[in-house]
């Protein structure tokens, strides 16, 4: 059993790139979940690992404000990470 702050079973130290990626993924999921909770309607279209957003229905004002403040300003990589947590057009 690894001790906090010491390498785990796979010998990666805490704070490794993999752990950082996991934290970013968790943060991305939290942003997507909050956007959806506020009434966000954007859908992801994922094709050949290319992510695009479709926006046919209007967001609630709260969801739109959240998107503009917290998601839109992200760099492309991080914004795509958030977008991959949205429902997809195939879910419709």
TrEMBL record:
<protein>
    <recommendedName>
        <fullName>DUF3606 domain-containing protein</fullName>
    </recommendedName>
</protein>
<feature type="compositionally biased region" description="Basic and acidic residues">
    <location>
        <begin position="8"/>
        <end position="30"/>
    </location>
</feature>
<feature type="region of interest" description="Disordered">
    <location>
        <begin position="1"/>
        <end position="30"/>
    </location>
</feature>
């Amino acid at each position: 059993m690894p001790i906090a702050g010491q390498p785990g079973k796979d010998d990666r130290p805490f704070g490794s790139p993999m752990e950082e990626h996991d934290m970013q993924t968790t943060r991305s999921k939290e942003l997507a979940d909050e956007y959806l909770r506020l009434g966000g309607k954007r859908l992801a279209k994922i094709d050949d690992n290319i992510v695009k957003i479709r926006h046919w229905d209007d967001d609630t004002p709260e969801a739109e404000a959240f998107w503009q403040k917290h998601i839109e300003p992200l760099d492309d990589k991080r914004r795509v990470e958030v977008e991959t947590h949205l429902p997809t057009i195939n879910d419709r």
